[in-house]
């Protein structure tokens, strides 16, 4: 009887802790929406109020028309789709080669991928800028695509761990049936790693959609800006209209939120399976 009571208390305690953590995680998002519906003066009112006295829905219209938000949305969507596609394909191929193909130096190559993850991006940004300057690719989306679409060490690590968990008997059966490495990848491995690829694609989309540093370095023209760069332009030299910034931020977060809500089961499944080994 005592053990059951203790178990209930522990369960209740865990639930309370999880609820508190969920509220803390959701509060900044709720505050962003609240501020987006306030006037400029009410946004700085003290004591602050979560629910606005007057809902200023026109803040969203002002945020969309003050700057070319639609163009930035299309730019971010284009770069995200192209980069996600490239990162998923190259990560799956590299993960297959490092996870199942036996060749001398595979451990060294994989160690190189892992070591690249430890190098701060700011260290390689200047050499990349100089290279793309020589190629006349500054202020073009192509510069971002070339350096991002095939560069995702975390994706290689994720796919390698997932593919390593697949039974070797599948590969052996493919070899017996006369399949080469390419056909085994497309017909055996690829259909089985869909959860990992879906998880990778979601993380990649979030990262590319929210990317600020790379577009800031390589893009100069406003018509080529992505959403994070355009949000930065809402800040004035002396004043900041936080209501418009929060309204624009609310609009900007919708695609990421929708992708996560519709695909969260793939994230959990992909991460869970990549942590397992056969």
Taking all Cα atoms into account, the compactness measure Rg is 24 Å
Overall geometry comes to flat
State the separation between the terminal residues, measured CA to CA: 40 Å
Structural class: mainly alpha
Low-confidence stretches: none
The CATH class of the largest domain, by name, is Mainly Alpha
Number of helices: 13
Largest sheet: none
Protein name: Sugar ABC transporter permease
Domain ABC transmembrane type-1: 73-263
Transmembrane segments: 12-33, 77-98, 110-132, 144-163, 184-207, 242-263
Keywords: Cell membrane, Membrane, Transmembrane, Transmembrane helix, Transport
Task: Give an account of the 3D structure.
The protein is mostly helical and 278 residues long. It has 2 domains: 1-54; 64-274, MetI-like (MetI-like fold, Orthogonal Bundle). Helix content is 73%, strand content 0%. The chain has helices spanning 2-36, 58-66, 69-99, 106-117, 121-134, 141-148, 153-164, 168-176, 181-192, 194-209, 213-218, 227-232, 242-274. The longest helix has 35 residues, at 2-36. The protein starts with a helix and ends with a helix. The chain crosses the membrane at residues 12-33, 77-98, 110-132, 144-163, 184-207, 242-263. This is Sugar ABC transporter permease. Keywords: Cell membrane, Membrane, Transmembrane, Transmembrane helix, Transport.
């Amino acid at each position: 009887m005592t053990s059951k009571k203790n178990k209930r208390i522990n369960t209740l305690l865990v639930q309370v802790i999880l609820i508190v953590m969920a509220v803390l995680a959701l509060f900044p998002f709720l505050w962003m929406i609240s501020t987006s519906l306030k006037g400029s003066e009410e946004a700085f009112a003290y004591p602050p109020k979560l629910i606005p006295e007057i809902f200023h829905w026109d803040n969203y219209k002002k945020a969309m028309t003050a700057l070319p938000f639609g163009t930035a949305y299309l730019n971010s969507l284009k770069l995200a789709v192209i980069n996600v596609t490239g990162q998923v394909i190259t990560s799956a191929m590299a993960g297959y080669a490092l996870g199942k193909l036996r060749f001398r130096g595979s451990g060294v190559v994989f160690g190189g991928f892992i070591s690249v993850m430890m190098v701060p991006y700011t260290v390689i940004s200047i050499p990349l800028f100089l290279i793309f300057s020589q190629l006349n690719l500054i202020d073009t989306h192509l510069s971002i695509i070339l350096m991002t679409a095939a560069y995702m060490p975390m994706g290689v690590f994720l796919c390698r761990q997932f593919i390593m968990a697949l039974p070797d008997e599948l590969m052996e059966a493919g070899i017996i049936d006369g399949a080469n490495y390419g056909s085994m990848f497309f017909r055996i491995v690829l259909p089985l790693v869909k959860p990992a690829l879906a998880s990778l694609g979601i993380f990649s989309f979030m990262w590319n959609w929210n990317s600020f540093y790379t577009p800031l370095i390589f893009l100069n023209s406003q018509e080529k800006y992505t959403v994070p760069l355009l949000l930065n332009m809402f800040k004035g030299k002396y004043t900041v209209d936080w209501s418009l910034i929060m309204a624009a931020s609310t609009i900007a977060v919708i695609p990421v939120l929708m992708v996560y809500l519709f695909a969260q089961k793939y994230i959990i499944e992909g991460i869970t399976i990549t942590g397992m080994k056969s």
